[in-house]
Amino acid sequence: MNKIIRHKKLPLAMALLAAGCSASVFAQTEEPEEMVITGIRGSLQQALSVKQNSDAIVDAINSEDIGEFPDKNIADSLQRIPGISVDRIWGEGRDIFVRGTNSTMNRTLMNGQNVASAYWWANDNPSRGFNYSILASELVSSLEVYKSPEADIDEGSIGGTVIVRTRKPLDLASGTINLSAESVYSELPDVWDPQLSALGSWKNEEGTFGVLASINSQKRRVRRDGLEGFADNTLYSVTDQNGAVTKDVYAVWGGGSAIFQQETERLTSNATLQFKPTDAWDLTLNYVKSDMDSDNNNQNYLFMPGGYKLANGDRVTNPKFITTGDGKKAIVAGTFENPNSGGAAIEPIFREASVESEVLDFDATYTGDDWTVHAQVGTTSAEGGSDRDMGYWFEANTRERVNLGKNTIEIEYLDIDPKDHSALTLLSARDWIRKMEDEENYAQLDFEKELDWGIITGIKTGIKFRDETITNNRTVGSTNSSSPAWKVITMDQVSGGLTPRLHGEAATSGSLTQYAWIDGNKAKQVIDPMFVAGAMTYTYDQKAFYEINEEISAAYVKADFEINKFHGNFGVRAVETDQTSKAYIDGKLGSVSRSYDDFLPSFNLIYDVADDVKIRAAISKVMARPTFQDLSANITINATTASASAGNPNIKPFYADQFEAGVEWYFEEGAILSGTFFSKSLDTFVFTRTTTEVIDGKNISVTRPHNASDGADISGFEVQLQKELGSGFGMVANYTFTDATVPAVDGGQKLKLPGNSEDQANASVYYENDSVSIRLSYNFRSEAYGGLTSGSQLVTADYDQWDATADWNVTDQITLFLTAVNLTNEVIYQHTDDGIPVGFYENGARYSLGVRAKF
Q: Residue 676 forms beta bridges with which residues?
């Protein structure tokens, strides 16, 4: 196996270098004290080295550790760190939540810089969070999570800042080649898919010039089963079989039994040139590109108690109501009697979707005797969306009996059979062409000098400029039923047979688990040709357009200090943000501009109680800017539910005063027992309010974001234990408790902080020897809250997951591996806090078999 060199104490920069270097390279710089076998134990020791020698509150993962986890992107790896949870709604990690804060309040930087990102789904919007699904874990050398800020790190995070560091060729042995090939089996679609990766690195004999190139190709076919309820804020009157009327009642607009299928092909490439003409100079040019095609289709067999039945004044036999958080009622069961007001539909949607993201970065460092100058310039861009988002609407009249609960969605169609294709008739079709774009140019200059000014041992100062533009566009194609080319089609003309059996884990006795569905190729052949003849007209959707530009200028100064057993740093970051939001308002393009300044101090203190015990404390002021969607002045109408969402260009940034303190005991080699308390006081948070607005002559329920007049308080603690147990066994465990106190909004309901999970836990046990390593990992987070709907907050229920990996080192160069993800096929349950179901999603287990070769 490969070996690494261990030292009693490394400065942070050297610890990071060790995480990516081979033994031969590192041995040139310092005489080793002992040799430690790499693998799980070695990688965990390296991560602890980063944590132990940092001047802030930091957790880390290195490349060997990422390789050992059964994770296909870095979000899934980050969830192993204390205080971090992951959104798995699409089956793999995409967004992260840190210490009770929403994903939009946490930034991810690659080599210290932002990476533009976008999304493929029609209902997603550009975010300040990072789309981790675009980045393969093989690209990464190390991950660092800064939970307490330092003045030289970009502002914008309240929970924490993740820094992704990519590999450099001069840190690797010349001629390094890493190859990986695996086949991944996904349980629900019952398919095997190939995944390949390769990395090659070369440097000259003098170690002054190196080239690194890597490529990662992943193909993945997924299936996600969903039972869904479309809760909204519309109020209805309900009349029962006796004529009794209950007014102001929430009802799901509709719901359904859905099957989502996607074929993703992701190609991530990286090329790095590094040049060190002298010991003083280090020049690096880095290029990363990720292309992800995500063609997908979603078919949902619908029931429509609110949008069709109650909207038409239907009577309901034996209605069942619950009381919602705002004191109103919601109907959750009953028989909707009118057989002629719709009641059943299927909405197949076929998307040609993609996401592209790239980074070009130049980094230059000059090191003098006791000073360093660093410059970095670059550009990053991303584009995502769909070239086509084709939806068809087939409908039938029927009575329906509905039974809904927190974990229950049951429907009985009383006049039709969901397995009968001929029961449904094509009524309309639509197409969405969606494009979201993100582009940023940046430049920064840093100067660092060692000092001997009493307790001040060094100073670092710098400036940075960022110019980022986010653009959102959509073109809508709609059917013209009066066109001669438009004709009535029943679903049996485009039949795809019956769906597979659905909802193996989430279904209850009355759930719809199989129904007639559509063949997408037949739909293209039978229905789509009519649009060429004029039955589909395309219009640019002005209401969906927005463009937001931010010009951010920052300057900082940071000082390092040391006095006896105390050391750390303090500093301040000054930031000016110039922001312009453009959108069409009443058919005219308008803009809203503003500018604001921030001064963000930070202080990190470490007290070395002993060689193996550290006490840390940090205090700081931090900020996070609102999401781009929240800042937009546009309005987007949901054609299905006749509701709308809109932005608010005057929404204010979030500010927090935060404090953390903890103790770390490194009680033996590669071991730690630590505890950290943290507290954050936010001046505001964002909530949504729904009101009725007149748009194009129609009354539309419009939901907009607003700043709460009061803030939120977040406090909690993290505990971490890592230890080798002997005879090749070891364990890693951590637990985070987060308590968030949020005041009532505008004197109304008291909310839970969006994104917060009160309890989070991770645990791994492993065994390894010279030939074999095995790891079993467990991840848990308690319920998390979202926005307001139907009188109360959206809740994502408790979720836990088991993953496993096993490696067999056939030779020093060849390793066979097995992985298993989501072994027990856990279901993601979403409902309102009062018990109205929103969505139950299962993605199935995933297994892989592969081989790695390292030379």
A: 662, 718
Q: Is the pLDDT of residue 492 over 80?
A: yes
Over the stretch 787-807, which tens digit does the pLDDT of each residue have?
788 988 899 999 999 999 899
Q: Two tokens at 212?
A: 């690194």
> What does the DSSP 8-state code read for residue 653?
P
Rounded CA separation 704/349 (Å): 27
Angstrom distance (rounded) from CA 844 to CA 743: 39
Residue 144 in this model has a pLDDT that exceeds 60? yes
Cβ within 8 Å of residue 816, ≥6 positions away: 807, 808, 810, 849, 850, 851
**Taking a C-beta distance cutoff of 8 angstroms, is the pair 603, 562 a contact?**
no
How many Å apart are CA 476 and CA 350, to the nearest integer? 15
Of the candidates 46, 157, 187, the one whose C-alpha atom is nearest the C-alpha of residue 669 is: 46
pLDDT at residue 66, as a whole number: 53
Q: Is residue 794 a contact partner of residue 754, using CB atoms and an 8 Å limit?
A: no
Pair type for strands 643-646 and 698-707: parallel
The pTM of the whole model exceeds 0.85: yes
Question: How many structural domains is the chain composed of?
Answer: 1
798 compared with 428, residue with greater pLDDT: 798
- The whole-angstrom separation of Cα 160 and Cα 156 is 9
Instruction: Give the tokens for residue 821.
Output: 């993800």
Those residues whose C-beta lies under 8 Å from the C-beta of residue 283, and which sit 6 or more positions away, are 274, 275, 276, 277, 362, 363, 364, 365
CB atoms within 10 A of CB 163: 20
CB burial class (10 A; 0-12, 13-18, 19+) of residue 548? buried
Give CA–CA dist 241/264, Å, rounded.
Answer: 50
| Token reading at 598 | 């921030």
For residue 195, the SS3 value is strand
Strands (E) across 398-424 are located at 400-405, 408-413
- The helix/strand/coil state of 530 is helix
What phi and psi, each to the nearest 5 degrees, are found at residue 231? -75, 140
Residue of higher predicted confidence among 267 and 26: 267
Q: What is the largest CA-CA distance in the chain?
A: 92
Structure tokens at 578: 């110039």
Structural domain harbouring 455: 3-854
User: H helices within 54-160, ranges in order?
Assistant: 63-68, 74-78
Which tokens hold the place of 832?
A: 């309102």
Contact 62, 21 (CB under 8 A): no
Closest CA to 51 of 77, 19, 27, 79: 19
CA–CA distance, 251 with 131 (Å, rounded to integer): 33
**Please, are residues 326 and 790 in contact by the beta-carbon 8 Å criterion?**
no
Contact 550, 517 (CB under 8 A): no
- Cα 87 from Cα 146, distance rounded (Å): 20
| Contacts within 8 Å (CB) and 24+ apart, 822-827 | 822/91, 822/846, 825/187, 825/504, 825/505, 826/505, 826/799, 826/800, 826/801, 827/505, 827/506
Q: Which residues contact 85 (CB under 8 A, 6 or more apart)?
A: 79, 96, 97, 757, 760, 781, 784
The position carrying tokens 């999970």 is 757
pLDDT at 638: 66
Among the residues of 205-269, which ranges form H helices? none
Helices (H), 434-538: 520-526, 529-530
What is the separation of C-alpha 119 from the centre of its chain, rounded to a whole number of angstroms? 10
Q: What is the per-residue pLDDT across 647-697, written as a single tens digit (0 to 9) for each?
A: 888 889 999 999 999 999 999 988 999 999 999 999 887 777 777 777 777
Element (H, E) at 326: none
Whichever domain contains 535, its CATH number is: 2.40.170.20
End-to-end CA distance of the chain: 11
Tell how strand 107-110 and strand 161-166 pair up. Answer: parallel
Cβ distance 266 to 466 under 8 Å? no
